[in-house]
Structures are given as C-alpha cells and as structure tokens.
Amino acid sequence: MKKLVAGLLSLSLFATISCGLSENTKRLIISTSVGCGVGLALGAVYDEVQRKKASKESKNDIRKRVAESLQLEKKKPQNKGKIVGLGAGCLAGLGTGFYLNTMYDNMSEQLSKDGIQLEKVERGGETQSLLVKMDGGISFEDGQADLKGKGKENLDKLSEALAAYPETKINITGHANRTGAEDVNVKLSNSRAVTAKDAITENGVEAKRIGEVKGVGSTAPLKGVDPKDGSNRRVEVEILPAG
After folding, report:
1. Which of 38, 41, 59, 176 could make an S-S bridge to 185, C-beta 3.0–4.6 Å?
2. How far apart are CA 156 and CA 147, in angstroms?
C-alpha cells in the first residue's frame, strides 16, 4: 500500500497545469500548477485504507506531501510572482476543504500584493467557498456597466489565479446603488455581472466554470455603507468547488 501511494504521489506531483485547461488558458495565463491527474486514484487508495480501518494519518500524509511540493514549486526562480496551484484530479483525491484552503493560502499570498483579499466561508469547520474582496471593489460609473481601470486589472489578476485551480466554479453577482427605479437597477446590475463574466472568460477561464451570473439591483448594499453610495455599484465573485 505504501509503495502504491508513493507511486501515485510521484505521478500527481510532477504533472503539469495543462491537464483540464483550454489552449487559450495555456497561452494567456502565466499561472503554474502542481498537477493531480491521478487524484481520483488517490481517493480510491484512501477509501481502501479506510475500509481497513487505518487511521486518518494516511490521507493527512498525502496532503502534507502535496503542500510541501507546492512550496517547493513556488520557490523555483521561474515561478517567482506566479500563482502555483493544483491541477485536475486534486479535488476528488484530497477533499474540498483541503483544496479550497490550499487555494486560499496560495492566492492570498500573491494577490494581497495587488489589493485582492479572499474570505473563507465555512460550515461545520470546513471551508465551503471563497469570497473575493478587492481594493476599491469591481466598481462602475453611475448608470454604466462597462469595466475599466482598477476593476479591469483586478479581474485580470483573478483570472490568472483561477487558471491554477481548474476544479472550481465561479458565481458572479452584480449590484447597484439605491438610486432611480429598482427595475432599472436590476437590469444594470445584471449587465455588470455579465461584463465581469466576459472579462474572466476572455482571460482564458473556461466558460463551463462559470456558474450563476445574476444581478440583484440595490437589495444587498455593503454593510455599514449608505445604500445610495457609489461603492455599491459593484460585482462580487464567489469561488466554489466544481461539481
């Protein structure tokens, strides 16, 4: 069993990010990844271990080795300043919580330099999703849905990070500040969400990874902010495990 696990780890840790990514992503996104193309096999190994009533230490050891491999990849000169992630198969082999926590740790370290923060959403002590919070938000001009300036830069950087974690999907919600008729606000907020989706897919993130894209008008202003304030003209991005 130990030899089998070691062999699978060897295969998974030296696979490349090309697994599961489109040619456009390979071409446009600079992110690098430690692949887990045999993640499903890792999961099967773990199931067998569990059937034999072994301790949880076996899977924890696999996770530790993957984490160590990520750290080694990030230290390589050619990977400096890049998001090093997990390739296809890791989600099934290592579990949702570990996958999202690894994504949080690695993305936070690099993206925080650009004013992009991540927030964990947990349930029962396990991470269920990540919320993207950006410096100044992904904001829009009054009555407009076109994206430019800081908002465009933020989405470009987010797209690069998402490429390193192919086993995630993204929900996008558009918002408006509380001025004018609400039916207009709803249409405008929906257009803003679509604009953000287009920006992300144009940067190489496959369209099949985009989940819900919707506008909620002015019904969910930022906490502690006047609903009429312009900062409420924004979109929010939620990252969830695929499947």
Report:
1. 176
2. 11
Other Cβ atoms less than 10 A from the Cβ of 41: the count is: 19
What tokens were used for 12?
A: 């998974």
Tell me 222's DSSP state. P
Going residue by residue through the chain, which has 243 residues, state the pLDDT in tens, using 9 for 90 and above: 443 344 444 434 434 334 444 444 443 334 567 776 544 444 444 455 455 545 566 667 778 878 888 888 888 888 777 788 888 878 877 789 989 999 998 888 778 877 788 899 999 989 999 999 875 567 777 787 877 677 788 888 888 889 889 999 999 999 999 998 999 999 999 999 999 999 999 988 999 999 999 999 999 999 999 999 988 888 899 999 997
Specify the 3-state DSSP secondary structure of 131: strand
C-alpha closest to that of 110 among 164, 173, 69: 164
Q: Which helix (H) or strand (E) holds 122?
A: strand 116-123
Contact 105, 161 (CB under 8 A): no
Measured distance CA(88)–CA(17) in Å, rounded: 8
Residues constituting the chain: 243
DSSP-derived secondary structure letter, 82: S
Find the DSSP H helices in 36-181. 39-51, 57-75, 90-94, 96-111, 149-163
Q: What CA–CA distance (Å, rounded) separates 183 from 202?
A: 29
